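#struct-help
A.M.: can someone run this one for me? Single chain, 152 residues.
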Amino acid sequence: MYEAHAAIVGKVISDPIKRTAASGDEVMSFRMASNARRQDRNTGEWVGGGTLYVTVSCWRRLVSGVGASIMRGDPIIAYGQLRSSQYTTKDGVERNDLELRATAIGPDLARCTVKVERPRRVSVEPVVLAPTESEGAPDVAEATETDVPVAV
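D.P.: on it. Structure tokens below:
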């Protein structure tokens, strides 16, 4: 197995699927494709090259962001640890697989536009302590709807 960090620019080619790993952690994975294209200097036309297919796995906080934002067909940039593995299928066929364990995923702004929604921060209101009887606490019968509820 070879491990390296890489950034891959491409397109999501499968719907993201969320599952639970044996450890109990949630993981979301999808396939992406990255096409090599270059401009032919003689003709000026764009020429397609090979295609790199990668399985992208997202863990921890990335799961909810990807689940809410990424879908098949989206142009993305994915960054993370690239791993290759070899295995034999049930039919006895040798296979090689390339996986990117993503640490960051974002839209490719050269090919799309997005509106960023940031999670709202939870604001904590200060706790107002109720006055004691010696400080002139209101009687329960004197309380009105305009009185602010207080934490004790």
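A.M.: thanks! Residues 15 and 25 are 20 Å apart (CA to CA).
D.P.: also worth noting: The first helix runs from residue 61 to 69.
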